Amino acid sequence: xxxxxxxxxxxxxxxxxxxxxxxxxxxxxxxxxxxxxxxxxxxxxxxxxxxxxxxxxxxxxxxxxxxxxxxxxxxxxxxxxxxxxxxxxxxxxxxxxxxxxxxxxxxxxxxxxxxxxxxxxxxxxxxxxxxxxxxxxxxxxxxxxxxxxxxxxxxxxxxxxxxxxxxxxxxxxxxxxxxxxxxxxxxxxxxxxxxxxxxxxxxxxxxxxxxxxxxxxxxxxxxxxxxxxxxxxxxxxxxxxxxxxxxxxxxxxxxxxxxxxxxxxxxxxxxxxxxxxxxxxxxxxxxxxxxxxxxxxxxxxxxxxxxxxxxxxxxxxxxxxxxxxxxxxxxxxxxxxxxxxxxxxxxxxxxxxxxxxxxxxxxxxxxxxxxxxxxxxxxxxxxxxxxxxxxxxxxxxxxxxxxxxxxxxxxxxxxxxxxxxxxxxxxxxxxxxxxxxxxxxxxxxxxxxxxxxxxxxxxxxxxxxxxxxxxxxxxxxxxxxxxxxxxxxxxxxxxxxxxxxxxxxxxxxxxxxxxxxxxxxxxxxxxxxxxxxxxxxxxxxxxxxxxxxxxxxxxxxxxxxxxxxxxxxxxxxxxxxxxxxxxxxxxxxxxxxxxxxxxxxxxxxxxxxxxxxxxxxxxxxxxxxxxxxxxxxxxxxxxxxxxxxxxxxxxxxxxxxxxxxxxxxxxxxxxxxx
Length: 674
Ligand SMILES: Nc1ncnc2c1ncn2[C@@H]1O[C@H](COP(=O)(O)OP(=O)(O)OP(=O)(O)O)[C@@H](O)[C@H]1O
Prior knowledge:
Residues 64-351 form the ABC transmembrane type-1 domain. The protein is α/β, with parallel strands linked by helices. The protein has two domains: 36-368, ABC transporter type 1, transmembrane domain (ABC transporter transmembrane region fold, Up-down Bundle), CATH 1.20.1560; 411-488 and 573-663, P-loop containing nucleotide triphosphate hydrolases (Rossmann fold). 59% of the residues lie in helices and 8% in strands. It contains 20 helices and ten strands. It has helices at residues 5-8, 24-33, 37-58, 60-92, 97-148, 161-202, 205-234, 236-250, 255-260, 264-316, 322-366, 452-459, 482-487, 503-508, 518-527, 531-535, 557-570, 587-598, 636-642, 645-663; strands spanning 411-419, 429-437, 441-445, 467-472, 475-476, 489-492, 575-579, 605-609, 621-626, 629-634. Strands 6-7-8-3-9-10 form a six-stranded mixed β-sheet, sandwiched between helices. The chain has a four-stranded antiparallel β-sheet with strand order 2-1-4-5, covered by helices on one side. Helix 6 runs antiparallel to helix 7. The two termini are 50 Å apart. Residues 1-25, 373-401 and 664-674 have low confidence and may be disordered. Bound molecules: adenosine-5'-triphosphate. Residues 157, 421, 424, 428, 446, 448-454, 494 line the site of adenosine-5'-triphosphate (ATP).
């Protein structure tokens, strides 16, 4: 017996999963990581300003409180240090202890007041920050969703747009982190400044001592942070590979194939390889970081010792009083603390800033895909008014256009329409012209990839033609109110979405503009042969159709297709587009569904896309597409008489049934239970 898939997964074969190639944006991340420490520092102010302005837009008062208390706490540090020095000066002075304590009392009171004020400011800062976080999250995330739900469908065809969007969503989460890190950095800097000022006031020479004692540690902390970021940036492909492997090995969707093809050992082997590399890299990083921080600490330690020796010499030489020397020791320790805050926060600001940059970058790029007055050709053109930090202010409201309630869709004229997807050689739809009148049922037929769904998507205004025009009641889509026009069209797509809602809501979302009345939902379900099936679910129409929630249920492919057809029927749209609505239906359900579609004839318009040609026989007009071009058009009998492509496809399919009928004894006909 040949070796099974477990053996074929042996090292050397299929060692790299091809879909995990490096993405274009990762080179950008890598370039930033290799930019060097100074370049990193130079980028900080821009990132901090972007985050603080996002916070300012979310809540001015709280942002001001956080900023004010942060700086205030720093200033209080300076006062605290100066008061400490005064206390020490008085205590180290000559004379009886009681007199010394009495003399130190004002400074002690100041110290107590400063301490209380600092504590009060810290509490106010914490309170304001806690309230600010959800507001900033909401502000930033809502803007992201306003954009992701409004961009034209073409955006999703653009290179790596989905990747870009995913990182932007993560970047949105980094906003609060960046704001907090920026504020903490401000606090650290204010503390450092305060210590510096206090030290200079005591004795200018001590500033030099302070710098010598603290700079080596600061350099080490920054360098270690930079090493960590470089490793992080270099590992993005590896992380995505791990993420993919996690999903493949633990998710429900891949579980059946994983077992049936015996992919367990193959995937575990992939995991071991990636983790082996990851562990090695993390160990190397730990070694480099430890070396750097140890070297920094050693130099810092020696420098601090030198400072203390210097202080001793100054003391012995009578150049500085004992109190100033004692304050200097406290100042050096304070400076160490502030500096470690500053270096840690710089590291955080940088990392969070990189992620936040993904968000602002995405928002700027996505603005080009927002529908605007410029219409479909707006791609690449200016987007709506941009908010601060490259954030589009909001999705612009549609200008007043045609689309009143009385204006039903009477005629759709497609004039020389083409569409070319990005990075595709030929057009998916090529110069198609046709007219669809109210009440007609028309069918688009043709082989896989002939352009049927693309043409339907353009008629449904989901995609903008790259050539030609589509007129609705004589007016091009650009002259209509986009929402009003879409409200007249219902689309049941091939790639329907399983919304994680109840069965009733899954149908009701077909017409969110109206009240979700149960009788209407049930009537739509009945037309799509879904009513009985839904009633048999554990909670009937209230059954949650998502197994990731407790008590949730999943449905079979055909059952889902009935629900999506019901969604399409609910709206009573002027135009219903049904793209392969019956591919998973059993023959009885299919027959009933097409009967419901035929019932629309004369009343409302239907575009039907299906490969089951028996179902298009009754269509008023059949359009045959081939390689994006319209090659035949007419009623069934006419096309059969022409003996062209349609006749060939129809005869081929019918022959399958005929030969089956000739070899299988006919089953007794059962009454249609609908
Ligand atoms: N988003 C896309 N990006 C790039 N090319 C696409 C995209 N969608 C479809 N295409 C290509 O456009 C052509 C037409 O696709 P379309 O889905 O319109 O065909 P279809 O006739 O509906 O096919 P089927 O019968 O298989 O559903 C195909 O060559 C397809 O590969």
